[in-house]
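thought: fold this chain, then report.
action: predict
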Amino acid sequence: MSKKRTWISDALWLLACLGLLTATALYVAGRTGTDFFAHGPFDSYTRQALAWRDGRMMLDGEYPWLELAIFEGEYYVSFPPVPSVPMWVLSFFFGLETPDALMCLLYWLGGAAAAFFLARRYLPAAHAAGLAAFAALAGSLLDLAVSDAQTAGGVWYQAQLLAFLLTMLAFCLCTGRRRAGWAAGLVCIALAVGCRPLNALYVPLLLWILYTHVRADSLWRSVRAMLPYVAAPLAIAFAYGAYNYARFGNPFEFGHSFLPEYTESGDAVLALSNVWNNFLNILRPPQVVDGALTFPTLCGFAFYLTNPLVVLSPVRAAERALRRRGDAIDGMLAATLLLHALLLLTHRTFGGWQYGTRYLSDMVPALVFLWARGGDRTRPWEAFLMGALSAFSLYGTIVFHFL
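observation:
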């Protein structure tokens, strides 16, 4: 097939994937009452952006319905700052009434497009489109992107979906052939950390991929070749530290530790003692009550149904290992994903009210990479399972909002 025909085929499969996702999102929104052009009440990021425009890091007062850090009598947004940057731009056009729900939808679609391009590097276009659609649909990401009339565009969802987009872009760009892409990919993962700090776990893996690109005849020359690519990400990390220090006197504190639920209880945000109970919670299956399917609404449930890539991608990697087709990157991916899951399980609330297990959605970009990089096409039984789990996610996302 010529390059032109390949490009046209890729574009058509990508459009089919994004069209399916958009139609699904609009259908769910129609059932749950989501208005993508409305501004939701739980958008801390726009308030942060408006504070920046006034030259302040703290907000102008208390907003009891928001998760705000209280430090030395001032109120601060308790989440990392990067999602406030798009809201800062939008605030010049919309003021406080930014279309935060629309931004969540666009982050989700953008992440799916990046997943397609990442998977296309290893798979035929049809299989790449199927994997990208499955990653976006069969799990908690659909609910984060649409939600309902009250919670759409919420601070939690903006952070996770922008991190999804940026982390997927990081894997896509860092595995490409263009030097500019390697640099941009590391900037993307640095920005993703400013949405979801635990995504920093993927930095060593991405640096290893960069090392394989620039590897020279000595370690020192290889490291020296990497330095221009890490300069901008290091500057971003320094900016986070300076911002945190200016607010809380600690370069590693984004503010969550100063939420009243922690300062009043004395509990830590992350603790190993939370792992077992959280793990039991995410094993809980749905229940049939009076002939209707119902789900637990707090602390997650049935990760094998609501984040199926957490199961299916490692199975694929294990098959490669048994056939002796795995490599160092597979091993690093598996170890990083395991550590990421463990650290997510240490969270005291593990996401609170949610459909499925939304924290595990942070692992989706790496899971897509793990699935695709072996180059194996989707088998019929996998395609059937992907369709069934996507349908379950569609049904569950809608039903959840009427429990």
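thought: worth noting. The mean pLDDT is 95.
final: tokens above.
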